[in-house]
Design goal:
Structural class: mainly beta
Number of domains: 1
Distance between the termini: 42 Å
Strand content: over 45%
Helix content: under 10%
Number of strands: 17
Radius of gyration: 16 Å
CATH architecture: Sandwich
Bound molecules: 5-phospho-D-arabinohydroxamic acid, zinc ion
Order of helices and strands: EEEHHEEEEEEEEEEEEEE
Strand order of the largest sheet: 3-4-5-14-9-12
Length: 193
């Protein structure tokens, strides 16, 4: 492997800022409206505008074996019906690709599951580090009234696989909804086991 030059990343979380970055992944409601259990409610919102749900800032690190990707993710606050804004959710395409999330600001839940349908919900808030072992699909959910911001790292060569998300697919077996003003993790009524 070519020797790579060390570098520092500067960041703030109030406001969210991360440099240097080589890629920004932006997920708007129009792109991911169908991950919510009530997509018709998302369509109503989309008639008035197209809110940004998630931004991901990725550092300029080669997506190759031997490197660790480093990123910052911002999930904006909001809901579609009772379901909080969240990432699309994915699993990594390798069984040697664990991931670490470190929350800097806000609060949320980290839904995780295996292909055997084991489920685990991590707590995301300042003071928590979430460890996502290889083989666990993951989706972060912003359950707060402010932005949820976290840093993370994973083996840079591993690709994200979204093939289980969508209509008639397995999806995440749990969802997070607001009930009486508080987040509640419940079974996903539209998941297909
Ligand atoms: C994170 C996620 C980020 C957005 O960087 O990519 O939180 O998630 P989705 O791509 O599922 O919308 C990560 O887990 N990378 O592996
Ligand atoms: Zn991931």
């Amino acid at each position: 492997m070519e020797i790579f030059k060390p570098f520092d990343i500067d960041y703030t979380y109030d406001p969210a800022w991360f440099e240097p970055k080589s890629l920004v992944i932006r997920r708007t409601l129009e792109q991911i409206y169908d991950i919510f259990i009530e997509p018709d409610k998302a369509m109503t919102v989309l008639k008035k505008g197209n809110p940004v749900i998630v931004d991901v800032y990725m550092a300029p690190i080669p997506e190759e074996a031997g490197h660790l990707m480093v990123f910052m993710t911002i999930i904006y606050p909001g809901k579609v019906g009772d379901e909080y804004y969240m990432t699309k959710g994915h699993i990594h395409d390798s069984d040697t690709a664990p991931e670490v999330y470190i929350t800097l600001k806000g609060e949320g839940k980290l839904l995780m599951q295996t292909s055997n349908n084991d489920c685990f919900t991590g707590e995301m808030k300042k003071g928590k580090i979430n460890y996502i072992p290889s083989g666990w699909a993951h989706r972060a959910v912003n359950t707060g009234k402010e932005v949820l911001i976290f840093l993370g790292t994973y083996p840079a060569e591993s690709k994200r696989d979204y093939s289980f998300i969508g209509k008639g697919k397995k999806n995440f077996l749990k969802i997070v909804v607001e009930k009486d003003g508080l987040p509640e993790v419940i079974d996903n009524p539209v998941s297909v086991r």
